[in-house]
Amino acid sequence: MTSRSGILNIMEHSITPRHVAIIMDGNGRWAKKRLLPRTAGHSVGSEVFRKIAEYLGTIPGVEYLTVYAFSTENWSRPADEVKEIMRLLDHYMDTAMKSLIEKNIRLHFLGDLSVFDDKLRAKMEKLHEMSEHTTGLHVNVAVNYGGRDEITNAIRSMAKEGMDLTAVTQEDITSHLYTAGQPDPDLLIRPGGEKRLSNFLLWQLSYAEFYFTDVLWPDFSEKEIDEAIVWFAGRKRRYGNVK
Ligand code: FPP
Questions:
Q1: Distance between Cα 157 and ligand 1 center (Å)
Q2: For burial by CB atoms within 10 Å, which of 66, 138, 156, 214 has the most?
């Protein structure tokens, strides 16, 4: 896939988001509108994830993508839906994830991975190792991820390391999150019409710009990414200051 000249022209003159985060929402409604099972929406949604990751990898200046694939709260969904999302993830480990690596993408899995069975966890670790030598876009796939859970785990880790918790700094917390060593997201994109964070990257999104669109995730394309990036380029980020 090649970058579209329009977005490249714009990017030459303005600010590109270094880290883009996406809540891939609307799969269920997309399927329902077509009288299909919700799982059909997740299936198309996972293809769209691959397409969008590849596309972002071609945009100069974009270095990180974090997608919300499965939250700590999603386990309460109907058992067959949870099973299908796990199956899709597993399938993706074997197919599309490898093709992403061929496209020079670096894969990371964020979240409490201890709940997954050994086989699935081993695949995640292997894919991470396999992609360590690549030099392109970092793609974080958040699975069994919750922002509150992540911050709680960071505090537990610091306590286990024997750190003095009365003297903890923001940098200490940042370096104990799943995203340790990575820059915070600059742009959060939420398709699907809802305007909420849903426990995603609570710490890291402090100064991100939020872009909401009614387009459902399975209908998402390169065009919507271009629109979000152009919108981002027009934002004035003040980080609490006045200028
Ligand atoms: C939100 O839509 C989507 C999810 C909870 C799951 C997202 C999972 C995938 C796209 C597939 C697996 C991912 C990868 C990376 C292979 P929703 O079900 O809440 O939609 P709704 O709001 O319309 O009900």
A1: 30
A2: 66
Please confirm, yes or no, whether 25 is among the known catalytic residues: yes
Q: Which domain holds residue 22?
A: 17-151+185-233
Does any domain span residue 206? yes
Q: How many structural domains are present in the chain?
A: 1
- Per-residue model confidence as pLDDT tens for the chain (243 residues): 444 545 555 555 458 999 999 999 999 999 999 999 999 999 999 999 999 999 999 999 999 999 999 999 999 999 999 998 898 889 888 887 778 888 899 999 999 999 998 989 999 998 888 888 889 999 999 999 999 999 999 999 999 999 999 999 999 999 999 999 999 999 999 999 999 999 999 999 999 999 999 999 999 999 999 999 999 999 887 777 776
Query: 156 burial class (0-12, 13-18, 19+ CB within 10 angstroms)?
Result: exposed
User: How far does Cα 163 stand from its chain's mean position?
Assistant: 30
Burial class (CB in 10 A: 0-12, 13-18, 19+), 231: middle
Q: Residue 41: how many CA atoms within 13 Å on its side-chain side? A: 22
Which residue out of 22, 24, 87, 124 has the highest number of ligand 1 atoms within 8 Å of its CB and is therefore the one to mutate?
Answer: 24
> Could you tell me if residue 176 is inside a domain?
no
In a domain, 223, yes or no: yes
| C-alpha 46 to ligand 1 mean position (Å) | 8
In this structure, what CATH number is given to the domain that contains residue 222?
A: 3.40.1180.10
Residue 147 forms part of a structural domain = yes
Ligand 1, atom nearest to 81 Cα? 18
